[in-house]
Amino acid sequence: MNQEIIEVIDSEQDETSQNWCNLSEAGSLKEGYDLERFVEPPRKDFICLICLGVVRNPLECSQCGILLCKKCAYGCSKPQNPFFSMSSITIKFNCPICRSRAAPREPSMILKKFISNLIVYCKNKDRGCKVCRSIGEIKNHEKECDFKVIRCANHGLCSKEGSKIDFITAKCIKSEKNADRKLKFVCSEICRKVVVMSYLLKADKSEEAVDQYKLALEQLSQIN
């Protein structure tokens, strides 16, 4: 009974320090980086003991100093007010190693920068990409990676998916000077003409759209 009283008092004393979590972001967080993505084996200190990946959005136990992904820190924590609405729940950290209930803290900037500078392969490596970048830079590359999986821009008639490098571009020009040009990726010449035709119709260029339509029909007849 005395132990329970002490725990309640401790909970009240450090309630203000439990501001490390935000329940609204919990669904968007990810577990650690897969170890196979690293060019060189990372230090064991950087491996989250929950998901066994290299820590992503790391938090540090203020007592024993272990690192955990923020998502994993949420997972090993407990709500203090389970009978109230989610908006009133306070998350209480529970370290998986030392069982400390003290709120975790942000690691030092030097440590976070060190982890951010670790070199990883592009997530599209298995599809043929050979690019390696730091954790902090790889996301920008992956957004434009030639080997990322995309779907043909002719969504209404085509559902083909594949590596970006295997697709061709359809140029939808928005101005006479080509200053504002949006590229769309399609799987074939026919889909290219359909996408361009759709754009021309939206831009009130019906005659040019009809020309594209005729060309698409001609190609279809040749295939048949």
How does this structure look, described?
The chain is of the alpha+beta class. The protein has two domains: 2-116, Zinc/RING finger domain, C3HC4 (zinc finger) (Herpes Virus-1), CATH 3.30.40; 149-223, no CATH class. The protein is built from six helices and ten strands; from the N terminus they run αββαββαββαββββαα. The chain has helices at residues 2-13, 70-75, 109-116, 135-144, 189-202, 206-223, and strands spanning 58-60, 67-69, 78-79, 91-92, 119-121, 132-134, 149-151, 161-163, 168-173, 181-186. A two-stranded antiparallel sheet has the order 1-2. A two-stranded antiparallel ribbon has the order 3-4. The chain is elongated and about 65 Å long. Residues 1-17 and 84-88 have low confidence and may be disordered.
Care to count the β-strands? 10
Report the sheet with the most strands, covering strand number, pairing sense and barrel closure: 2 strands, antiparallel
Tell the overall outline: elongated
CATH topology of the largest domain: Herpes Virus-1
How many DSSP H or I helices? Answer: 6
* Beta-strand percentage range: 15-25%
For the record, give the distance between the C-alpha atoms at the N and C termini, rounded to a whole number.
83 Å
Order of helices and strands: HEEHEEHEEHEEEEHH
What Rg, in angstroms, do the CA atoms define? 26 Å
Overall pLDDT: 79
> Any idea what the CATH architecture of the largest domain is?
2-Layer Sandwich
The neighbouring-strand order within the major sheet is 1-2
Low-confidence stretches: 1-17, 84-88
Report helical residue fraction.
25-40%
Alpha-beta classification: alpha+beta
The named CATH superfamily of the largest domain:
Zinc/RING finger domain, C3HC4 (zinc finger)
For this structure, what is the CATH class of the largest domain?
Alpha Beta
Number of domains: 2
